[in-house]
Amino acid sequence: MRLFFSAILFLSFLSANSQNLSSYVDPFIGTAGGGNTNPGAVLPHGLLSLSPLNTYDTLKNRGMASPYRFGEKKMSGFSHLNLSGTGCREMGTFLLMPTTGNLELVPYKYWSDYSKEEASPGYYTAQLDRYHIKAELTTTLRTGISRFTFPKGKSNILINLGLSLTNRKGANIRRVSDTEVEGFKSIGGFCGPPTIQNVYFVAKLSKKPASCGVWNDERKFQDFQREIAGDNIGAYFTFDTEENETISVQVGVSYVSIDNARENLQKEQPAVDFNRVRNDALNAWNSELSKIKVEGGTLMQKSMFYTALYHILLHPNIFSDINGEYPAMLTNEIVKADGFDRYSVFSLWDTYRNVHPFLSLVYPKKQSDMVKTMIAMYKESGWLPKWELAGMETYVMVGDPALPVITDTYLRGIRNFDVALAYKAMKHNATVPEVDNPVRPGSDNLLKYGYIPEDATNKRKIWGSVSTALEYGIADWNLAQLAKALGNDEDYKLFNNRSLYYRNYFDPKTNFIRPRLSDGSWFEPFNPSVDGNSLRSQTGFVEGNTWHYTFFVPHDIPGLIKLMGGETKFVRKLVTCFDDNYFIMSNEPDMAYPYLFNYVKGEEWRTQKYVREMISGNFNTSPAGLPGNDDCGTTSAWLLFAMMGFYPDCPGNMNFQIASPVFTKITIDLDADFYPGKNFVIESPGAEENVFIHSLSLNGKPYKKYTLNHQDIVTGGRLVFHLKKEGVGK
Predict the structure, then answer these.
(1) Residue 438 burial (C-beta neighbours within 10 Å; 0-12, 13-18, 19+)
(2) Rounded CA separation 369/377 (Å)
């Protein structure tokens, strides 16, 4: 599998031109080592994605979160709805599988080894060696088309509704004609909560079969015309094929109805034309990738960069049908998006930190529609989302992450949404008592004590008393910033004060943030070095420990410096975090840590040092080239910002922290509908050999800061880095 991919990639680089930036993208990056991405065909923010499923055996035993893992040997088919980079399994539905010879309906009996695997944005292909079938996949926003090239003889196509990654069972299928089937599949249970949703499909085949039917629990029912329901059901089609004969399967999906799935298919694929769909997909990707152009750097760095940009453009994804309809949040009432695209898959605990600031800067129209989506979710369900998936609220992870997203978006100048309603929704999330507030467990005790005691009884179950409270802190600080911008001084004071509750967790004797008890004493035992470099959740913390949260007060780093006893102690402790390997690149609360040295004058060189070390030490172009889950683009967003030389260390704060770019020139095209500038250019001669900043200039004038304001970027201009080989400490 993919034995010659490096050579193929190299040749594609040589043939790439400035408009074919897709040639730098390697969809296999992140498909091993826990990245949980997949190499399937998908459009930017596509509702439908077509991925190979090769994790059936491990799925049975260990619950794989991705349909695909590089290195697995057996292909079980191609699924039409998939997530990218998540830590829990879901979707992987509507599985197509071509075979030859005798008809088999059980995955472990019909799976195939495979080779000649290739992937590029919007396209995937592999050879199913057992059957000598070439499979090719490509997509539109809401539909997919699979083209199978068969050998001469008896050939089959299976549509399996029983095998998927979802935790929910139950499906329905009906054979409309010899070349068309329709139905739905239930999904839900992402990361455990009791959620459920239906997704509908219509599938059309390009050739009439010699025979066809449906199955239920491995029993075939040939020519059965009525609906069939069950957990392990599907449809089969058997053909007499000539050598190299192609048969295509078009699939349209919808979360609303079969009729909408059919309409999506009819309007996005009015004819069977695989090559047209593939070409349109390539053009769509090149259009989006071309918003940022980089020059210089190595071929590997360009591949890392544009693959990261590709990953960040997968989620959130379109949820509304081509007619604008979608199922409302929680209620599933069918409503219509008026004047905006409805999105889904809001992994907000991850993405509020860097994905949404990135989208606001480079793709403000998409970000605007995402905020409009979040406000619509509040209107429909009574709450802003926490971790939304296909109209279901999963309540995964902690905090109130919608608030930073909305504030950050507004302060960046994207304001074409109902700001008054957004502010009302944010206050609602932040102030409703815990018993009636599913978003903020532990909030009553937080307001009572100024912290959430580890031994207190909360009205709702919480995960990580310290982590939860710290996340509420950044949410409340953002609410305070929006209140201030809107002229609401009382609310500003209230929520700004709440954002400083983190100080009640700080122990001056140990210089760590740590859990405490309702009587004010500290929780024991407390040993920061135990599992310090592990994501095992220690008492009071979520997926980590005190090393991963002590510096997680991005809205008040100057205050934290004072608590720690001054700049020297702050820097010493932060250096220890890196040099003793407590920092974990894939852990979201840690991600801004390398940039915190910028808060201490004279120590900015350490930010440049550690950022460059984190890039080279954690990312590469192998399938294991991401350091853990991509988390719907969050890890990739960190890499994008790091390679460009600046980072949003605090959502809601319009100052980016400056490091140093890896490219000699970066051009960011700005959206004229939102921003006054045409583009922003970053130049860094000698970036390949040099890491440390000697001096900066902005628009031809000396620039003495190590922060870059959002407004300086979007008005357009030119930032020039003059770099040197060694930092202050060298």
Answers:
(1) middle
(2) 12
**CA angle, 253 then 256 then 258, to 5°:** 55
The secondary structure of residue 625, as a DSSP letter, is: -
- Residue with the two structure tokens 């590089």: 70
What predicted TM-score, i.e. pTM, was given to this entire model? 0.96
Q: In 3D, which of 61, 118, 53 has the Cα closest to residue 81?
A: 53
- For residue 648, cis peptide bond before it (omega within 30 degrees of 0): no
The number of C-alpha atoms within 13 Å of 347 and in the hemisphere containing its C-beta is 25
Residue 640 has pLDDT above 90, yes or no: yes
CA distance 248 to 143: 13
Strand partners, 52: 78
pLDDT tens, position by position, 313-352: 999 999 999 999 999 999 999 999 999 999 999 999 999 9
Report the C-alpha gap between 293 and 278 in whole angstroms: 23
Q: Which residue has the higher pLDDT, 9 or 191?
A: 191
Q: If 0-12 CB within 10 Å is exposed, 13-18 middle and 19+ buried, where does residue 177 land?
A: exposed
Helix residue ranges per DSSP H, 4-117: 5-15, 56-62, 107-110
Amino acid code (one letter) for 703: Y
400 sits in the region (left: phi over 0; alpha: psi -120 to 50; else beta) called beta
Q: Is the pLDDT of residue 364 over 50?
A: yes
Res. 3: pLDDT tops 60: no
Burial of 206 (C-beta count, 10 Å sphere; 0-12/13-18/19+): middle
SS3 10: helix
Q: Where are the beta strands (DSSP E) in 458-555?
A: 506-507, 512-513
Q: Do the beta carbons of residue 175 and residue 102 sit within 8 Å?
A: no
Contacts 24+ apart (CB under 8 A), 537-540: 537/463, 537/464, 539/454, 539/515, 540/454, 540/464, 540/465, 540/466, 540/467, 540/514, 540/515
Q: How far apart, in whole angstroms, are the C-alpha atoms of residue 467 and residue 282? A: 42
| Interatomic CA distance for residues 47 and 345, integer angstroms | 10
Contact 253, 142 (CB under 8 A): yes
The answer to whether 534 and 628 have CB atoms below 8 angstroms apart is no
Res. 495: pLDDT tops 50? yes
Distance CA 430, CA 285 (A): 39
pLDDT higher than 70, residue 514: yes
Rounded Cα distance between 176 and 163, Å, is: 22
Span 105-114, pLDDT tens digits: 999 899 999 9
CA-to-CA dists, residue 262 to 277, 319, 324, 363, angstroms: 17, 16, 14, 30
pLDDT value, residue 63: 62
Nearest to 343 by CA among 375, 307, 300: 375
The backbone torsions φ and ψ at residue 236, rounded to the nearest 5 degrees and listed phi first, read: -130, 150
Mean pLDDT of the region 6-34? 71
Mean pLDDT of all residues in 206-220: 95
Calpha distance 118→669 (Å, rounded): 30
pLDDT at 5: 43
At 58, the pLDDT band (50, 70, 90 cuts) reads: low
Distance between CA atoms of residues 369 and 339, nearest Å: 9
Please, what is the average pLDDT of the chain? 95
Contact 213, 220 (CB under 8 A): yes
3-state secondary structure 249-296: EEEEEECCCHHHHHHHHHHHCCCCCHHHHHHHHHHHHHHHHCCEEEEC
Place of tokens 């802003």: 384
Among 230, 609, 651, 183, CA closest to 404: 651
Buried residues in 42-73 as b, exposed as e (16+ CB within 10 A): bbbbbbbbbbbbbbbbebeeeebbbbbbbebe
677, with CB counted inside 10 A (0-12, 13-18, 19+), is middle
**Beta sheet of 655-658, edge-to-edge order:** 646-647, 655-658, 707-709
Q: Give residue 676's identity as a one-letter amino acid code.
A: P
